[in-house]
Amino acid sequence: MSFLKTSRMNLMERLNLHRKSEVALLAEGFAGEPGLLQKVGKRFIQVSGQYFVPYSLQEIVLLGHSYTREGRQVNLRTRYLGAFPAVLVRTGTDFIEILVNRQEEEEELWVLIPLNQVISIEEA
Hints:
The chain is mainly beta. Helices cover 5% and strands 48% of the residues. It has one helix at 11-16; strands spanning 22-27, 30-31, 35-40, 45-47, 50-52, 59-62, 72-78, 82-91, 95-100, 109-114, 118-123. Strands 1, 2, 3, 4, 5, 6, 7, 8, 9, 10 and 11 form an eleven-stranded antiparallel beta sheet that branches. The radius of gyration is 14 Å and the shape is globular. 21% of the residues are buried.
């Protein structure tokens, strides 16, 4: 998989870089309103006063984050959304980071997905 840009960073380390910024969380049966990522611990994150287990989430959307659109166009298949096109920004030790366009959203979303939710990544 030479097209994958990998890093040794894990999901909790990546989330710590986004601390004190807005995130939106999605899990089976749960779609949280955007909230402030207050704390990143060893197993939990605190968002707007509530604690969440990041590895149990389907995706974490990073909001208010400026970015450059660098990455590779891929076809991604996840447990919760099936197959869809995305721009793969990086793979960490236990997560992937993508940019994705969704019809219901006005702008491109910057998303972190735990690897336990990913079925496959194919170069587009």
